């Protein structure tokens, strides 16, 4: 099956790489995915879209119909939307784990604590390796293989490395992972090992790993799979298309996203802007980006200079996925905030822990970095930026089981023991459910059941 001969509406649009700084257009990127002229990031553009993608209704029908197809390219929740992605001559060349197609769930308990009538979560942690990274990795890893690379590489706080290692393995490529020693959760680290990555734990933080890798890719024939690679963002963009499809093409009022290296917020924003441009939606949701207060370069950048120059920080947060002080895609994220009218907000470690437990109590669960969305939303509601009757979607980026140690320590009550936050953490008590050690008798179990029931009544 080749896209170029397909009779499907709107298929196979040539794409180009365009610099977000100086606007220069090129066919092929440098190894570091920076503009050869001004050093800024690149993005994918589709010059022929305006003229030929007019039939939005036909595409909506086609994308829905593909859900019943057995072809890998249709079963993937990314490639199902391939008319809005860079095209492949032979779709059998793509590396897919049937990523995407993630659920949109109502969150009644979280809506209550946030002060909203209704709240939804789109759970990108339900992807094959447990995070949103898979949607971008299927695209960029496929490009790496098409370009003939034997090695792919990334710096990571854990999820990118897990995802990259899986897609590289599926595509017959080797993978090199640089991670900050001691700052990546075991769940994520064990995935990279199992999928066969050469995994280097470096005595530095994520930002240090990124700096080093940029030098490595200049010297070695290794394909960079961090989110500076614009193909990653094209794949990640499909989560926004799928979300709008789940809302029957009526955009919600707000989408709330965690911010780390700022690739994901940029990708989702790009999709909404493109869908508006192409007539799929008539208005834009406001995209708000939430960071941990200890890793808040975007918040500071917006507050201190309105998004003009990056205020890099020394990052520290237990939400290790977003422990990033020098985000690569900050300019793209600023553009999305400005284009959609979204807000930036920061949340404390205790607020993150509480929000994570509240998401769990709705039967959904997520990793700490994803929980900043609910914690930030509560603040945006209090500030009046989000109104009680508005429709809001939290983007949950990683699965609960990515970081079980955080969750166990939370429920045991020792997450903040011995830290300056110990007193503030008192508010977490009513969410904590430590395992109960009992004698192995029926009486003991029944007594515990009754006590728990009494507690629920009061
Ligand atoms: N949530 C999770 C679970 C993540 O793993 C990340 C980033 C983010 C949010 C932030 O997304 O960087 O696009 O703003 N993790 C990267 C990694 C950095 O290496 O896994 P972002």
Task: Tell me what the structure shows.
A hairpin with a 5-residue loop joins strand 1 and strand 2. The protein contains 17 helices and 13 strands. The strands form three sheets. It has a six-stranded mixed sheet with strand order 4-5-13-10-11-12, sandwiched between helices. The chain has 458 residues and is an alpha/beta fold. Helices cover 39% and strands 13% of the residues. The chain binds ligand F0G.
Radius of gyration: 22 Å
**Into which percentage range does the β-strand content fall?**
5-15%
Shape: globular
State the distance separating the first and last CA atoms: 63 Å
Ligand roster:
ligand F0G
Count of DSSP E strands? 13
The residue fraction in helices comes out at 25-40%
Mean pLDDT metric: 95
Structural class: alpha/beta
Largest sheet: 6 strands, mixed
Instruction: Please write the string of helix (H) and strand (E) elements.
Output: EEEHHHEHEHEHEHEHEHHEHEHHEHHEHH
Tally of alpha and pi helices: 17
Low-confidence stretches: 1-7
């Amino acid at each position: 099956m080749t896209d170029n001969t397909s009779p499907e509406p709107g298929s196979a649009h040539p794409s180009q790489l365009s610099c977000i700084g100086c606007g220069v257009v090129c066919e092929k990127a440098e190894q570091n995915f920076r503009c050869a002229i001004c050093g800024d990031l690149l993005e994918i553009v589709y010059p022929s879209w305006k003229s030929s993608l007019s039939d939005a209704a036909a595409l909506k029908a086609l994308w829905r119909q593909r859900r019943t197809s057995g072809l890998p390219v249709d079963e993937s929740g990314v490639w199902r939307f391939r008319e809005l992605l860079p095209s492949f001559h032979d779709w059998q060349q793509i590396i897919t784990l049937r990523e995407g197609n993630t659920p949109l769930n109502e969150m009644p308990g979280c809506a209550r604590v946030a002060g909203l009538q209704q709240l939804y979560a789109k759970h990108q942690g339900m992807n094959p390796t447990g995070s949103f990274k898979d949607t971008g990795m299927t695209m960029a890893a496929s490009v790496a293989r098409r370009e003939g690379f034997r090695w792919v590489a990334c710096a990571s706080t854990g999820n990118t490395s897990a995802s990259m290692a899986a897609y590289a393995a599926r595509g017959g490529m080797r993978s090199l992972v640089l991670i900050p020693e001691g700052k990546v959760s075991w769940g994520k680290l064990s995935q990279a090992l199992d999928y066969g990555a050469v995994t280097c734990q470096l005595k530095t933080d994520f930002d240090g790993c990124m700096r080093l890798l940029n030098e490595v890719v200049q010297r070695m024939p290794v394909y960079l799979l961090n989110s500076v690679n614009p193909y990653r963002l094209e794949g990640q963009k499909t989560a926004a298309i799928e979300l709008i499809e789940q809302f029957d093409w009526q955009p919600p009022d707000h989408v709330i996203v965690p911010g780390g290296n700022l690739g994901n917020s940029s990708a989702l924003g790009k999709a909404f802007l493109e869908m508006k441009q192409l007539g799929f939606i008539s208005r834009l949701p406001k995209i708000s980006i939430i960071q941990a207060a200890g890793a808040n370069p975007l918040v500071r950048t917006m507050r201190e200079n309105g998004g003009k120059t990056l205020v890099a920080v020394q990052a520290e947060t237990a939400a290790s996925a977003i422990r990033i002080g020098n985000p690569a895609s900050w300019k793209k994220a600023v553009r999305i905030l400005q284009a959609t009218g979204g807000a930036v907000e920061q949340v404390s470690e205790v607020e993150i822990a509480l929000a994570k437990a509240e998401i769990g109590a709705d039967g959904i669960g997520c990793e700490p970095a994803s929980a900043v969305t609910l914690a930030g939303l509560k603040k945006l509601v209090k500030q009046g930026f989000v109104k009680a009757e508005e429709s809001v979607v939290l983007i949950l980026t990683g699965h609960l089981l990515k970081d079980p140690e955080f969750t166990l320590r939370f429920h045991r009550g020792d997450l903040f023991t011995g830290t300056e936050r110990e007193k503030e953490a008192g508010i977490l008590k009513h969410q904590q459910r430590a395992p109960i050690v009992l004698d192995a008798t029926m009486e003991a179990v029944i007594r515990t059941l009754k006590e728990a029931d009494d507690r629920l009544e009061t």
